[in-house]
């Protein structure tokens, strides 16, 4: 959808093609699998202090100019974005008439309350979201085998579903670790769900790892088009051949759509 580092016209290149509110920091296009967040220096007058911390986490302040912030509207949309299978696209305002630079696709890992002031210098509580940039380049990287687990597939599913959709109140230092733990929980369940059979072509895994487990690779089916959070509905376990064909083959997009339909049958039934 967007190129990291490129500057866009908010009205013409973001909202006209994709919809969403044209003003404010949080835009929620209707019937689209994503949210738009906008950050910039103008928010400082409302007590917003967005930016990167030392842990590589982007701290994004929620919406609401006066009084304590609550989980309604855009704030709720950010917190529950994975539950609703929606991505987060973050843009940085470059000043009056300067456009908006695209910073990338993010996921909300955790959040916290902080004390701040509003436009009238009154003390209040604000919500600060901890945004993480997920690793997009899944192809060409070998998926490690999950640690052996005594849990049954349904237990793994419940754990993965909770991990994929739960965004908890934590400190920024914990955000990246919890994000990786959630990704691992989804990967463990997806590989267990496949039971050694590629969820794309239906063939057995081509070989076994040194620990004896069948070799399949997790594939995020929504990342070919508009990105997608780690969620068992959108992640399939596929063999290396299918994985490379999806990314590079002439019929890759159709193969990816077929896999999406198959996962829908498995997880939405």
Looking at the structure, the CATH topology of the largest domain is PUA domain-like
CATH architecture of the largest domain: Roll
Helix content: 25-40%
Largest β sheet strand count, sense and barrel closure: 9 strands, mixed
Number of domains: 2
CATH class of the largest domain: Mainly Beta
Poorly predicted sequence stretches spanning 5 or more consecutive residues:
139-145, 224-228
Number of strands: 11
Shape descriptor reads globular
Describe this structure in words.
With 269 residues, the chain is an alpha+beta fold. The protein folds into two domains: 7-132, Roll (PUA domain-like); 153-268, no CATH class. It is built from six helices and eleven strands. The protein has helices at residues 10-18, 73-79, 153-165, 172-194, 240-248, 252-268, and strands at 7-8, 26-27, 34-39, 51-52, 58-61, 87-93, 100-117, 123-132, 168-169, 217-220, 235-238. Strands 1, 2, 3, 4, 5, 6, 7, 8 and 9 form a nine-stranded mixed β-sheet that branches. Strands 10-11 form a two-stranded antiparallel sheet. A hairpin with a 6-residue loop joins strand 6 and strand 7. Helix 3 runs antiparallel to helix 4 and helix 5 (240-248) crosses helix 6 (252-268). The longest helix is centred in the C-terminal third of the chain and has 23 residues, at 172-194. The radius of gyration is 20 Å and the shape is globular. Mean pLDDT is 87; it is low at 139-145 and 224-228.
């Amino acid at each position: 959808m967007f190129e990291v580092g490129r500057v866009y016209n908010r009205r013409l290149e973001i909202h006209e093609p994709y919809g969403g509110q044209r003003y404010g920091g949080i835009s929620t296009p209707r019937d689209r699998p994503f949210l738009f967040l906008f950050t910039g220096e103008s928010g400082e007058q409302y007590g917003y202090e967005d930016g990167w911390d030392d842990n590589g986490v982007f701290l994004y302040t929620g919406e609401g100019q006066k009084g304590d912030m609550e989980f309604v509207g855009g704030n709720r949309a950010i917190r529950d974005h994975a539950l609703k299978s929606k991505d987060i696209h973050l843009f940085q305002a470059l000043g009056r008439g300067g456009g908006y630079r695209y910073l990338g696709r993010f996921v909300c890992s955790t959040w916290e309350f902080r004390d701040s002031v509003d436009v009238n210098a009154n003390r209040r509580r604000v919500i600060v979201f901890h945004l993480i940039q997920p690793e997009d380049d899944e192809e060409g990287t070998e998926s490690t085998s999950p640690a052996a687990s005594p849990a049954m597939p349904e237990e793994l599913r419940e754990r993965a579903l909770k991990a994929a959709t739960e965004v908890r109140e934590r400190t920024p230092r914990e955000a990246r670790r919890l994000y990786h733990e959630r990704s691992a929980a989804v990967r463990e369940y997806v590989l267990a769900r496949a039971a050694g059979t590629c969820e794309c072509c239906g063939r057995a895994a081509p070989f076994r790892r040194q620990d004896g487990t069948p070799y399949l690779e997790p594939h995020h089916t929504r990342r070919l088009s508009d990105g997608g959070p780690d969620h068992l509905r959108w992640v399939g376990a596929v063999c290396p051949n299918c994985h490379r064909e999806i990314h590079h083959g002439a019929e890759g997009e159709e193969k990816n759509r077929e896999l999406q339909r198959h996962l829908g049958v498995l997880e939405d039934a």
